[in-house]
Amino acid sequence: MTAADHDEQAKARMYFSQYSSDKPAAKAHLLLAAVATAPLLVYIPVNFNIIVTAALTVYCGCWRSVKPAPSTEAMTNKEAMRFPIVGSCVLLSLFLLFKFLPAWIVNTLLAGYIGAIGVLVLTSAATPYFQDYFPEALVEMQFNAPPFKIPYLIDATEERLTATVPEICLGVLSACFCAWYFSTKFFFANNVLGMAFSLEGIEHLSLGSVHTGTILLFMSHGNPSHGNKSRPNTCAGLFFYDIFWVFCTPVMVSVAQKFDAPIKLLFPRLLDAASAEAGKRPMAMLGLGDIVIPGIFVALMLRYDVRSGFRTKYFQSCFGGYVLGLCTTIFVMTYFNAAQPALLYIVPGILGCTGLHAYISGEFMKVMLWESAECLHVVLASLMLVDGLGFKGMCCKQRCQKDILSYLNFNESQPPPPNST
Prior knowledge:
By secondary structure, the protein is mainly alpha-helical. The chain is built from 18 helices and 8 strands.
């Protein structure tokens, strides 16, 4: 690499350190808390409430994803291809459980699992904004949990869990909050947990590249595999997954209505005579997938802008596309008075606005082929692996290293992982 390349990478690392924060988007978080609390005091028009709450949640989650050092794990293309298949299997399994078992049994069995995760997620989401209220000595004090293992949930036998005093205190409060939710199923408690799940999901789910995000959201039509050159590697993304399960089957809507858990945000409607007589307030709902899945792509575009010190403005276009897609969803849903697959409108919004912006700027291929720094961890690890395997055939070894180095040179303008050379 040239000296100019190293300078550009150093600037990128400096920008990530500059724009990351222990309390990211604090004002936006306060506004989100106010919007979530407002329906307890006054009536908020339901469509306006949905758009503002979802947009603020995505905005806050995106800024939480900006870290001084890139994540060591990122979603790969293969994982993105499998995501709709795994999601379909889980969705269909829940539908069959609710069909053949009483709903209260299914919800009760899943309550403990969701409650345990809810405590951890709520604690993690709140800690950065409340730990400063504790004395510094307590903030630095850590406690190690004894080794334990919960099947299919967590394995802390090798890497023991540690917690600070603020995390323990907030964890106790989070446990009480989750207990309150499961005992009352109050919509406000549901939304707090749902927003915490969304914020943590957008913060920690990382896409390795714009191409991976396109596969996840829309479709992959890649090169044939070596084993079967006659069949292209084609895979439909969540755009088609959402359309199929909402329009072609009753599965998605049925599970959303019967699954009594914070997997969706609830927005109170005006109380009509029929609802008042039944003693139940009508609610509009928005699934967390319609927030988290587009949100991780919007977060990727924010990190793309951060690496250049915001000389590019793709985050604004992508975030605007999300809001536009969400508004279109609300309009169509209101016009036809029927449930709509939100990703049908959100995916074209974020991909279309980002692609159009890149095309106008003359950077379409540069943006579409961009690999984030998380992806380079895998490439560098592969390079070290090839060097350490001790191939007997030097031609094979040199060819592998040449291919990997070519990949690195293609992405040399991107910031490398810390401590890499």
